[in-house]
Write the structure tokens for this entry.
Amino acid sequence: MSDQLLKFLFRDAPVRGEIVRLQESWRQMVANHRYPAPVTRLLGEVTAAAALLAANIKFDGALILQIQGNGPVRLLVVEVQPQMRLRATAKLREAAVIDEDASLQALTNPDGDARCAITLDPTGRRPGQQPYQGVVPLAGESIAQVLENYLRQSEQVESRLWLAADGSAAAGVLLQKLPQEGGAAAKPDVDAWQRVGALTATVTTAELLALTPEALAHRLYWEEQLQHFAPVAPRFECNCSRQRSGRMLLALGRDEVDSILAERDDVEIVCDFCSARYAFDRVDVAQLFAAGTTSGFGSTEQPH
Ligand SMILES: [Zn+2]
């Protein structure tokens, strides 16, 4: 399993953990994009974090992590569909100049008003039903810090995150403090959170990227008693389709689509996530709008 997400509990500490490493899926996500290295790193960290967050909640639906701001990177979107099906994209400003060592704030938030939004979109959501969304300001030196704050605020759970990414892998560790169990048998271990945190803080970027989650868990926690759960295999999957692209054209409106067709033979929608191309010529467009207006079907899709 080259892509793996491992969940575990510490037997002697009220702490739960997750480790993820994406290789094949991550390479597929970046293959068709020529992101500058700092953007690849950031998008990889956000992707690893989104996988960790999605695995951490009991929820049937998609988790969407989105960062929007006024920097050279104007939008980052990562979607995690059920069964750990991932897709991710970054949109850069035209003619964006990006330093090799650009920080999170320089990349996304030069004006200080960037936002990080986490949306939970339930499977089978009815039209008009709003998905749950939590938004936090993009305050911090790393995406790990931003999300630690988010988890502290939204879930009221002490959380720590370590993230790393390059062009070939994206990886991360999430620790969360569990409420201390009562009862006579439970020996209160007040230092456990600190101890496990200190062990994890020894992790290097190279280890995160090079080791399988199982090997990394062993390296970090060999003195601890761990209870592992069966690992899951995240994978890249884009759910774009010709039909969804058609709905985007319907949402744009006939006038707008016709104005594009006045200048070229077809209107083409390119998927930001997987670079698939969907072309609609005049006949396709006429059919689309005839069907779209009679069935009245969806403008609920967001153009992406
Ligand atoms: Zn796609």
Notes: Residues 37-56 form the longest helix (20 residues). Confidence is low (pLDDT under 50) at residues 296-304. Residues 238, 240, 271, 273-274, 276 surround zinc ion (CB under 6 Å).
